[in-house]
Specification:
Chain A: It is a multi-pass membrane protein. Chain A: It comes from Lysinibacillus halotolerans. Chain A: This is Iron export ABC transporter permease subunit FetB. The structure holds 2 protein chains of 2 kinds. By secondary structure, chain A is mainly alpha-helical. Chain A has 2 domains: about 1-55; about 55-240, no CATH class. Chain A has helices at about 5-10, 10-20, 30-55, 60-75, 85-105, 115-145, 150-155, 160-185, 195-200, 205-235. In chain A, helix 6 (about 115-145) packs across helix 8 (about 160-185), helix 8 runs antiparallel to helix 10 and helix 9 (about 195-200) runs antiparallel to helix 10 (about 205-235). Chain B has a single domain (about 5-90, about 160-245), classed as Rossmann fold (3-Layer(aba) Sandwich). In chain B, helix 6 (about 170-190) links the parallel strand 7 (about 160-165) and strand 8 (about 190-195). Classes of the chains: A mainly alpha, B alpha/beta. The interface between A and B is medium-sized, with 17 and 25 residues.
């Protein structure tokens, strides 16, 4: 695609701008900002990726992955600010996700050990893990707030913090994993997944595109399970002190 | 108070603050072994905070609490909470049957409560065996409170803390719970600390009383001080509550 043809796609931006103006939706400024940001960010990413793919140097690949993990951590931590040390807990979770998934993919030679595969797959898995961490933290803090009496009851009967928080922890883990499992049940019936569509548009064989999509779907299941379980087990001890007491304001958002 | 009584819990210059707000202000006093001590005072006096300190759910900002002659912090928290039971006003119920709720202290220790023991605990709180497999959430307030008391007895505590356990109950249930607490106190010699807003109940049930206001312990003594105290604030409070 040439830049001239790409510029024609701006018609898709003009349509909502005109509609917003006509219907007084007051979304023109946000639409323009979103458009400019996506052009600049995506082009920058495109050029950076081209450089990394061309150089095929391990340092650049690691830098890209570090950048992804850093950005995802900063986004997800906003939802768990009240949990002490949430930044490193999310970062550690994402590092484990990356190590486990890439370890399996590269270790079993499922994909070639090149930047062209490692970086896009890492991006999808880290991005998904970030969303799951946000879902988990939202649900976990809400569960504890709603059942503070039950948590206190178990502690008062001589239970440990882990026993006191067990139901809330498993509920939050289940709740954050369910969307991944449910969306995979209906995938391709409603819409073609983004990565698969991209490959098909790019000229790849549809069956091969499906194979890669399945790879991602299966990897996402592991991502979902590890993200919520790991961040859950790393987070709950910080809600209690060494005397097994609930730390005041430790779970308020 | 009575120098012949053994001390179960003592508070020495206990302060508690949250966000610079004083909740307990220099509390010093004793609770006696095998006796029922009532805690009375208006809302916000710090009674529930004090009660939770005895069970180790909260620690003082400064000051010392002793269980027997040992500092409270020398006890391992789970061990302390098994010997100092607490029944809360809200009588929290976990989802499941009455048996499920009664078994909770055992479940937490990876032990199984035999059904016949559960029935015996139910009978202690004057509920028959037919309650055992009913859903706990379907019970009345009084029945839930009885389950909560029975559950707190499962660990065979030496001290039992009761936080306004009859405040939301009808007069018949109040009478039943009072008789039950008296029976447990006499049968097992359990030390009781009971928060109540009901002055007549405090006189009826308590051997001793602590009168608290605005985080301070105004007076302690035998329950008769609720009628005989010369402290003007206490007189105003007692008369005010009785006029309600």
């Amino acid at each position: 695609m040439t830049y001239t043809t790409l510029s024609l796609t701006l018609i898709f931006v003009l349509i909502p701008l005109l509609l917003s103006k006509t219907l007084k939706l007051d979304l023109e400024k946000d639409t323009i900002i979103a458009t400019v940001r996506s052009i600049v960010q995506l082009l920058a990413v495109g050029y950076v990726l081209k450089f990394v793919f061309d150089s095929e140097h391990i340092i650049y690949i690691l830098l890209m992955i570090t950048l992804m993990i850093g950005t995802a951590t900063l986004n997800a931590r906003k939802k768990g600010k009240a949990i002490k040390g949430i930044t490193w807990k999310i970062a550690l979770t994402l590092i484990v996700i990356e190590a486990v998934t890439q370890g399996i993919l590269l270790g079993f030679h499922i994909v070639p050990a090149t930047a062209q595969y490692i970086i896009p797959i890492s991006g999808m898995l880290i991005g998904n893990s970030m969303v799951l961490s946000i879902l988990f933290l939202n649900r976990f803090t809400a569960e504890i707030e709603a059942s503070r009496d039950e948590v206190e009851l178990i502690l008062s009967l001589g239970g440990t913090p882990k026993q006191a928080i067990h139901n809330q922890l498993t509920n939050a883990i289940r709740a954050s994993m369910i969307p991944t499992i449910e969306s995979q049940k209906t995938i391709e019936l409603v819409q073609l997944p983004g990565m698969m569509s991209g490959q098909i548009i790019g000229g790849a064989d549809p069956v091969q595109a499906v194979q890669f999509q399945l790879l991602i779907i299966f990897a996402l299941l592991t991502t979902a399970a590890i993200s919520s379980i790991l961040i859950g087990f790393l987070s709950y001890p910080t809600l209690f002190n060494e005397r097994m007491q609930i730390i005041k304001n430790s779970i308020s958002k | 108070m009575n120098s012949l009584n053994e001390i179960a819990i003592s508070f020495q210059n206990v302060f508690y603050e949250i966000d610079d707000l004083s909740i307990l202000n220099n509390i010093t006093g004793e609770f006696y072994k095998g006796k029922i001590t009532t805690l009375v005072g208006p809302s916000g006096a710090g009674k529930s905070t004090l009660l939770k300190m005895c069970n180790g759910l909260i620690s003082p900002t400064t000051g010392d609490i002793f269980i027997g002659d040992q500092p409270i912090h020398s006890y391992e928290p789970t061990h302390l909470r098994k010997s100092v039971g607490i029944a809360l006003q809200s009588a929290p119920i976990i989802r499941g049957t009455v048996f499920h709720n009664l078994s909770l202290p055992f479940t937490l220790q990876n032990k199984k409560l035999p059904e016949k023991d559960a029935i015996s605990f139910l009978e202690d709180v004057r509920l028959d065996h037919t309650f055992l497999h009913r859903q706990a959430e379907d019970l009345s307030g009084g029945q839930k409170q009885k389950i909560s008391i029975a559950r707190s007895l499962l660990n065979r505590p030496k001290i039992l803390l009761l936080d306004e356990i009859t405040s939301a109950l009808d007069p018949t249930s109040v009478n039943e719970i009072e008789q039950l607490i008296l029976k447990i106190n006499q049968k097992y010699g359990v030390t009781m600390i009971w928060i109540t807003h009901n002055i007549e109940q405090a006189k009826r049930i308590g051997h001793y009383t602590w009168i608290m206001m605005e985080g301070q312990l105004l007076e302690t003594g035998e329950s008769t001080i609720l009628s005989t105290s010369t402290n003007e604030r206490i007189q105003q409070f007692v008369n005010g509550v009785q006029d309600l």
